[in-house]
Write a structure and sequence with these properties.
CATH architecture of the largest domain: 2-Layer Sandwich
Distance between the termini: 37 Å
CATH superfamily of the largest domain: ATPase, nucleotide binding domain
Strand content: 5-15%
Number of domains: 2
Radius of gyration: 21 Å
Helix content: 40-55%
Number of helices: 10
CATH topology of the largest domain: Nucleotidyltransferase, domain 5
CATH class of the largest domain: Alpha Beta
Largest sheet: 5 strands, mixed
Mean pLDDT: 90
Number of strands: 7
């Protein structure tokens, strides 16, 4: 949704061909191509990407799923929830029967509450409102301008409307550092984000009927490990949302998860012949 179908296709093909080359294989050795792509949850987008990839890999079986599917696959087996906190946010969960439910991941225009994008946007809105009132920049606002090397709010305003993806997410590290140093405004922004993110997990616990059941809870994404204050706060909120959860890590990379999905699809196809 951010880079367009052409950009996504080019990146996926480059990654696939690089993997084939590194494995010292040829395209003829490949039976299945599995691509886990952000934005592929929408049926029409998934169909279009599958068509484009099939044109690039015409003799292979092509499966298109989401990056969310790959991260859940990378947890292994059993009850699990993956909370992704980065430029965007989403959560996906699986119960013991294998039923999968996804929440969030609607993009910056329709959601992504608690994301780096959302935190940056909220920080800028607060700073612009203060500027409109003629108030002096808060310590956090002044730090944002300084660290992003932006001269003033008019300059930032122009940059936001030109390339918002290049502005809002870059503000999160500034907020994270300020929060760790005790800045109250930064801490309030992270508190709101932690509450939103825990809400995604609470929704999954309810929909998958996991209340009171032990499960694996994995946090992933670029916001994890960037701020002691945020990590501590998020863990506290998540323990309330899912009291029986055990925090853990993905047991494999997303790339390996894609390969495993492809292998299962190949075996299923062989059995069907």
């Amino acid at each position: 949704m951010r880079v367009g179908f052409g950009g996504a296709l080019a990146a996926a093909c480059e990654a696939a061909r690089s993997a084939i080359s590194n494995a010292k294989l040829s395209l003829d050795d490949i039976s299945v191509v599995c691509a886990g792509l952000a934005g592929a949850a929408q049926p029409e987008s998934q169909r279009k990407m599958k068509k484009l990839l099939t044109e690039e890999f015409p003799t292979q079986i092509v499966k298109v799923c989401t990056d969310v599917d790959l991260k859940l696959e990378a947890t292994g087996e059993g009850r699990a929830i993956v909370l992704n906190v980065g430029t965007g946010t989403f959560a996906v969960g699986r119960d013991l029967s294998g039923r999968v439910v996804r929440v969030g991941g609607h993009g910056p225009l329709l959601g992504d509450e608690g994301s780096a994008y959302d935190i940056g946007r909220r920080a800028i809105i607060a700073a612009l409102r203060a500027s409109d009132r003629g108030s002096k920049d808060s310590p956090l606002a002044a730090r944002i301008l300084h660290d992003l090397r932006i001269s003033d709010w008019e300059d930032l305003h122009m940059r936001v409307y030109s390339v918002p993806d290049d502005v809002f997410p870059r503000i999160f590290p500034v907020v994270a550092t300020a929060a760790d140093e005790g800045d109250a405004e930064a801490q309030a922004l992270l508190e709101g984000a932690a509450t939103e993110l825990a809400g995604l997990v609470a929704d999954l616990v309810e929909r998958l009927e996991l209340k009171g059941q032990r499960l694996l809870l994995v946090k992933s994404g670029g916001m994890v490990g960037r701020s002691e204050y945020f990590d501590r706060l998020l863990n506290e909120r998540l323990k309330i949302a899912a009291p029986q959860a055990e925090f853990g890590e993905l047991v494999m990379s997303a790339a390996e998860a894609a390969a495993r999905l492809a292998l299962r699809l190949m075996l299923a196809a062989d059995e069907g012949r």
